[in-house]
Specification:
This protein has 770 residues and is mainly α. It has helices at 4-9, 34-47, 54-67, 77-88, 95-113, 122-135, 140-156, 166-177, 184-201, 212-225, 230-246, 256-269, 275-292, 302-313, 319-337, 347-359, 363-378, 388-401, 408-424, 434-446, 452-468, 478-491, 496-512, 522-533, 540-557, 570-581, 588-601, 609-620, 628-641, 648-660, 664-679, 689-700, 707-725, 734-746, 751-757, 760-764. Helix 3 (54-67) packs antiparallel against helix 4 and helix 6 (122-135) packs antiparallel against helix 7 (140-156).
Length: 770
């Protein structure tokens, strides 16, 4: 698994290969008089004090003696290493830079004086490396390894007091384990292999011996990197440790921390490979077996069990994974109740199982776990008291289930009220947040039950009332208002457009009053405009146009002129065009055409094929029969000029327009064009029953002498197209045949003549005869 090339790429300096680094070569304590010893004791006292600035106090004392020497007190190596160690343990943001400067000062004093009593040794350098590792700065690991290389160079030059030991390498590995560098795992692994080389070259007293800490740090480096191979590399290192320890090298025997690091990597990898969840549970079982066999280092605790639970949680949407997680939680309760206090399930344990059930689309099971937690909390178990985030997980599961099943929206609403009741009774941990309310709104909004839209509106009003009473954190935002509007518009109940418009105006009012999180956007406006378009009332068109103007005003008032959320784009304009075209006013088509012209002149709302089709259809439905055909044809010409190819809807609308204008020849002309383009290979313009019905109706209303014959020919052409294409939309329906019969009646022929002309097979297959 670990190639020799990695080791050779970072080969040891030749001089280092000859060192055995036995105990006789360890740095000796520098000689000091009693006053210096007392001074060092004072430094140690300051360094180990519980004061936040203990390291700074120790450094100040050291620098004061250096700046104002007062024999016989003379700071030595111990003095510097004591302060360096204080900085390495301080976790201060400036600790690394302070340790680096102090070490440089120590080196400078030694080089200038040549006094071996003040020469930095391995403890000095190790403290500086530890300070770098704990600093968490982006280049901390690189700086730590640079100190290591400096130590190696000094050792190569003959300074045995600076020979790196196991602590040196382990500290550098730890620095890389905390680094976010992309090559951190390779750098940590190379250092470990270097330690193995040094150990192999030394004697029994070698002080560079890879141990459990070093191996575990490398495993943690892979785990934190979240690379694709992190889990496999961590597993290989663990197997290597087990193999070495079985050969008698007990210093590398894995412990609970090692298993924890590997299980963490397994939990992350389980997101894409479910087998790692099984591996994680096997590691947990192995730990239990070893602990039961007397190995106290392998005692599993709640955190270890939670890692195994997290692995099963990360298996996406798997019912088996949820069952496994539930079984592990139940096992924890059994072991805890049997006297194993270190295995007490906590909030994390229960929340993991709740997540697993919600991912498996079993929100009722998640709700059951939550109720069990609440019951234990009520009985006095504070560790199992569910917090608001756990309620939110269950609510989200109920909201997702409400999309296709009844009853879940009501359960979500009831759970919210239970949270409010607990909060009012003094449990501050379950205070519902804005996320909580929005999740319940989502559940109600996605529900298909008849009462859901009213309950959504009621809950929004409840949120508004809470915010007015001082609960500012639950003040409705854009998500709250948007979800409510979508729920109302989806219901299509009486007055749905008026209610949606009212909610939008409340939202706009909140935004204008300074509530920036309630900022409306074009999607919400389009939903309300579309609601007016589907309302078919006499005021629908005017309301839609007014909302369009309001959106434009909001954008003009915005501090950001390029605010994308408030741009009245093509989709918004198309919704307004639809609302105008569905109004039965004689001015509907001219208004729609006027708006289309504005779209053509705008850079933000360039009309698309739907825009042109809507306006053409508006003219086709217009009562202005004298101009409807010409205007529809003019719009078609503009559409083609602007680069849009007509589709079936376009042709159907233009045929309908000429039919309304009682111009059957022109209507049939466009039908023939449809047939020609379809025969040429354009399958998107296949004539359907609506096109033929419009043409036949045009002839029926024309009172032309040949109207019956022309209608009959059209019907035969439709049957022929249906036989060849076998497309259901081309099959003559009742309306087509009724129009054809009307055309024959208006030309002096009766229905009997019609039935005698049409061949039996087509008629037998036509549904209206039955």
């Amino acid at each position: 698994m670990f190639r020799l090339a990695v080791v050779l790429a970072l080969a040891l300096p030749p001089t280092l290969q000859g060192f055995t680094a036995n105990n006789s070569l360890r740095p000796q304590r520098p000689r000091a008089n009693e006053d210096t010893v007392a001074f060092n004791a004072e430094l140690a006292r300051l360094a180990r004090s519980k004061a936040k600035n203990s390291a700074q106090l120790a450094e100040n004392l050291l620098l004061s003696k250096l700046n104002n020497p007062s024999p016989p007190i003379k700071p030595n190596t111990v003095s510097f290493s004591t302060v360096l160690t204080a900085w390495s343990r301080s976790y201060s943001t400036i600790a690394a830079s302070k340790a680096q400067k102090l070490l440089s000062l120590n080196e400078e004093i030694f080089e200038e004086s040549g006094d071996f009593n003040v020469r930095p040794n391995v403890y000095s350098y190790n403290a500086a490396i530890t300070a770098q590792a704990r600093s968490r700065s982006p280049d901390a690991a690189q700086r730590a390894e640079e100190i290591l290389h400096r130590m190696e160079a000094l050792c190569e030059a003959g300074n045995s007091c600076c020979r790196p030991d196991g602590v040196t390498y382990s500290s550098c590995i730890n620095a890389w384990s905390l680094s976010k560098a992309s090559d951190a795992p390779e750098r940590a692994l190379a250092l470990l292999e270097r330690m193995n080389q040094l150990c192999a070259m030394g004697d029994e007293g070698c002080n560079v011996v890879p141990d459990t800490i070093a191996y575990t740090s490398v495993i943690q480096t892979f785990t934190r990197s979240r690379r694709k191979d992190a889990a496999s590399q961590a597993e290989a290192l663990l197997n290597r440790m087990i193999k070495l320890s079985s050969r008698g090298k007990n210093q590398v025997a894995p412990n609970s921390r090692t298993y924890s690091a590997v299980m963490s990597a397994f939990a992350e990898r389980a997101k894409v490979d479910s087998s790692y969840a099984t591996k994680s549970e096997k590691l947990l079982s192995s730990m239990e077996d070893q602990f039961n066999a007397g190995n106290d280092e392998m005692r599993p605790n709640t955190d270890i069990y939670n890692l195994c639970l997290r692995a099963w949680v990360n298996v996406e949407g798997d019912l088996h994974a949820a069952k496994q997680a539930s079984d592990i939680l139940n096992r924890m309760y059994v072991l805890y109740e049997a006297g194993n206090g270190h295995l007490k399930p906590d909030k994390v344990s229960c929340s993991n199982v709740i997540k697993a059930w919600t991912k498996a689309d079993r929100p009722e099971n998640a709700l059951g776990v939550l109720k069990a937690m609440a019951k234990r909390a009520d009985a006095g178990d504070a560790d199992c008291r569910p917090a608001a985030y756990i309620y939110n997980i269950v609510l989200d599961g109920l909201a997702n289930a409400a999309r296709g099943k009844k009853g879940y929206a009501r359960k979500a609403e009831n759970l919210l009220y239970a949270m409010e009741e607990r909060y009012l009774n003094g449990n501050l941990d379950v205070k519902p947040s804005l996320v909580t309310y929005n999740t319940v709104l989502k559940a109600l909004g996605q529900s298909k039950e008849n009462w859901s839209s009213e309950r959504t509106l009621t809950l929004l009003q409840h949120m508004e009332e809470l915010s007015e009473d001082g609960e500012e954190e639950v003040r409705p935002d854009a998500i709250s208002y948007g979800t409510t509007i979508r729920s109302i518009t989806k219901s299509r109940k009486r007055g749905f457009a008026v209610k949606a418009d009212d909610v939008l105006q409340r939202m706009v009012s909140q935004f204008k009053s300074g509530h920036v999180r309630a900022k409306p956007n074009k999607l919400i406006f389009s939903a309300v405009i579309n609601a007016w378009a589907n309302d078919y009332s006499s005021v629908s068109a005017d309301k839609a146009v007014a909302l369009l103007e309001q959106l434009k005003e909001l954008r003009q008032a915005s501090s950001d002129a390029a605010d994308y959320d408030l741009i009245s784009d093509t989709v918004i304009h198309n919704c307004v065009l639809k609302a105008i075209s569905r109004n039965n006013s004689p001015m509907s088509a001219p208004k729609a055409e006027s708006l289309l012209f504005e779209m053509e002149q705008s850079d933000c709302s360039e009309p698309d094929i739907r825009s042109y089709n809507t306006v053409i259809n508006a003219w086709a439905s217009s009562s202005r029969r004298d101009i409807c055909g010409d205007r529809a044809e003019a719009i078609l010409a503009r559409m083609i000029e602007n680069g849009h190819k007509p589709d079936r809807i376009t042709f159907n609308s233009i045929i309908k327009a000429w039919s309304s204008a009682r111009e059957p020849q022109k209507a049939e002309q466009y039908l023939k064009k449809m047939e020609g383009e379809y025969e040429a290979g354009d399958k998107n313009i296949s004539p359907d029953a609506r096109a033929y019905a419009s043409c036949i109706n045009a002839w029926a209303n024309s009172c032309h002498k040949q109207s019956g014959d022309r209608a009959e020919q059209l019907l035969h052409r439709q049957w022929e197209l249906f036989r060849r294409s076998e497309k259901a939309e081309a099959r003559p329906d009742f309306i087509t045949v009724r129009f054809e019969g009307s055309s024959r009646s208006s030309n002096g022929h009766g229905w009997d003549d019609y039935f005698s002309i049409i061949s039996p097979p087509p008629l037998c297959s036509c549904s209206f005869i039955d």
